[in-house]
Design brief:
The chain is mainly alpha-helical and 352 residues long. It is built from 15 helices and 3 strands. It has a 3-stranded antiparallel sheet with strand order 1-2-3, with no helix packed on it. A hairpin with a 2-residue loop joins β1 and β2. α3 packs parallel to α6 and α3 packs across α8. The chain is globular. The N and C termini lie far apart (70 Å).
């Protein structure tokens, strides 16, 4: 939700860059609301636009992601270089000593928390790599570290540059863009960030497994790779009361494994929202929540399906898949018609 509100703020920056009078849009909300009427309007406009895109088939969004891949990286690189130049190398935020402000985390747990956030983000991105395209995998292998590092460093250097120019650290990117003197720079930077947010929300929040829930991912991986050995009857997936109907339409084993992996993370999640909560030492598990939830759910589901309640009815000896595009092309190319001494092929006629 915070990301969508921020994207709405990027849209607001774009509108204000084109029509500066939009800054005088009447505000009818309380100062305690945390958002103005103009910001709320832009938030709903952005949300409607993203919803329309999310409802489209993913293959039709190819152009959107191509544009995103061309526009966003250069924008991040330009901001990164701007921050480096303004701060003469990064400033104290980059080169100074680290001072932790957490009242209960030390350096190790703070590092785990950051690593957990990155794993949760990129794991959802990774499931969108087309499995049959090996080149896509290699491209991601080299591109993700570069883009991920640039995306992480840019806000740090921009925040440091903000402190050099305006005297205070500002992590909220729309607030930084709003202070740009050039209306063109304000518009194109905000548009680029809004495009990046749309692509991220669709690729990392709409289509991947349950919006980054690690425990559910563990169940899915265990079921497909360890229990079913990557053998599915695709036709049965669409049949009522087929082999995947389980118990009255529910696979209780999956729910049990999910709860075992997800339940211990709830106290730490609550404390991450309200630091004053006393949850004992359970918050430590939440610092590596993705790995914990994924591993525990995967192992639990495997144990249940192997030793407690096997799902023998849902297992097949050989995968049953729908006709593939390559198969259709092969069948079309291998059409022969024999007539007398003439053999006809789809693309050519050979006389014997």
């Amino acid at each position: 939700m915070h990301t969508r509100v921020q994207a709405g703020a990027f849209l607001q920056c774009c509108i204000e860059a084109i029509w500066p009078s939009f800054k005088r849009f009447p505000n009818h909300l309380s100062p305690d609301a945390g958002i103005t009427s103009a910001g709320l309007l832009c938030f709903f406009i952005y949300w409607m636009f993203q919803t329309i895109l999310a409802l489209m088939p993913i293959q039709k969004l190819r152009i959107l992601f191509l544009v995103k891949g061309v526009v966003v990286p250069p924008t991040f690189l330009a901001l990164f270089l701007w921050g480096v130049i303004v701060t003469h190398g990064g400033g104290p935020l980059v080169t100074g000593k680290v001072k932790l402000t957490s009242s209960y985390m030390n350096t190790a747990y703070s590092s785990l928390t950051g690593l957990n956030a990155i794993i949760g983000l990129f794991s959802s991105m990774a499931v969108n790599i087309f499995s049959k395209n090996n080149l896509a995998g290699y491209h991601q292998f080299f591109a993700l570290p570069v883009i991920g590092t640039l995306g992480a460093l840019t806000p740090i250097f921009v925040t440091s540059a903000h402190s050099f120019i305006w005297g205070e650290f500002e992590w909220y990117m729309p607030a930084v863009i709003e202070k740009f003197d050039s209306r063109a720079a304000k518009f194109f930077t905000a548009l680029s960030f809004m495009l990046a947010t749309i692509g991220n929300q669709i690729a990392a929040g709409t289509y991947p497994f349950s919006n980054d829930v690690s425990a559910l991912a563990g169940v899915m991986v265990s079921d497909y790779y360890l229990i079913k050995k990557r053998k599915l009857n695709v036709h049965e997936l669409y049949r009522d009361r087929g082999i995947y109907y389980y118990s009255h339409g529910f696979n209780w084993r999956a729910y049990a494994a999910f709860l075992v992996g997800f339940g211990p993370l709830i106290p730490g999640f609550a404390k991450s929202i309200a630091n004053s909560l006393n949850v004992g030492g359970s918050w430590k598990i939440y610092t590596f929540a993705w790995l914990f939830g994924f591993s525990i759910s995967l192992l639990t589901y495997y144990i249940i399906c192997t030793f407690v309640s096997p799902i023998t009815n849902a297992l097949v000896d050989k995968a049953v898949l729908p006709p593939q595009k390559e198969d259709r092309r092969l069948s079309e190319d291998e059409v022969y018609e024999g007539k007398g001494q003439v053999t006809a092929h789809t693309t050519e006629v050979i006389a014997v």
